C-alpha cells in the first residue's frame, strides 16, 4: 500500500507518533495542546531493565515536523535549542519525527549527543522512510490514517481465499453499501507454473463481469488479488449483494466449476453474508 503523508494533517502525524510509541511500550504522559507548548509535541515515558536488573526511566521529548507538502528537510532553525527544551521538560531522550527528511546538519547534531560517552542524554530521529517502515509493520495504525480501496480489495481477497476457498465464485457484503464480488478460480498461475487455460478463463470472467457492471451503471471501486494471486475480487458500491452473486456466475463458462451442484453449495456457504456486512465500516461507506 502506498503511504502518502500529504493526505494527513499535522495533528494526524502527532497521533501516528503516539500510536507507534505506545506499541513500543511507551506511555504518553503529555500531549501537545493549543497555545504555547514550550517546544514539545509529546512526552513519552518508558521503563527499561538491563541484564543486571537495573531499571532506567526513559523520558522522551518528541517533536513532530510535517513537511510532506513542501518536501523540504528539517533544518536547525526548525527545531531550535532542543538541548534546552529537554531540560525544561525533564527529558533524557529526544526524538525528532518528520514526514520528510532530516538535514545533514541536524543528523550530525543528534548523533553527536548520542555518541558523547559522558552525556546520559541521547537523541534520534524518524524520517519519512522510517515512518513508512513502521507503518508497514503495524497494519492497524496504517489503516487508521491511510485508506485506499485498493488495499481494502487486497484484504478482501486474502479473507476470501483463507475463509471461503470452497466457494468458487460469488459475492458477499463487505461493509455497508459495498459488495465484494470474487472468484476463487486461479487468476494467476501458481508459483513456478506456466500460465494455463484456467488462468485465462478466470481473466475472461473478470473482463465479462466488468462489462456487465458497466452496463448496469455500477462503478468498480477497486480490483484486488490474494497474496497467492489465486483469488481475485472487485469491490462495487451496491447493496444488492445477491444480485451480484448471481451475476458473476453468468460470466464463467458452464462446466466443472460452474454447475448446479456448485451453485447450491455456494448458496449454502454464502447466503448469510448477503445481508450482514463483514465489516462495520470501511472508507466512506455508510
UniProtKB/TrEMBL annotation:
Keywords: Endonuclease, Hydrolase, Nuclease. Residues 7-113 form the Restriction endonuclease type IV Mrr domain. This is Restriction endonuclease. One of its GO terms (biological process) is DNA restriction-modification system. InterPro entries: Restrct_endonuc-II-like (IPR011335), Restrct_endonuc_IV_Mrr (IPR007560), tRNA_endonuc-like_dom_sf (IPR011856). The lineage of its organism: Bacteria, Pseudomonadati, Pseudomonadota, Gammaproteobacteria, Alteromonadales. It comes from the Bacteria. Pfam families: Mrr_cat (PF04471). The keyword Hydrolase applies.
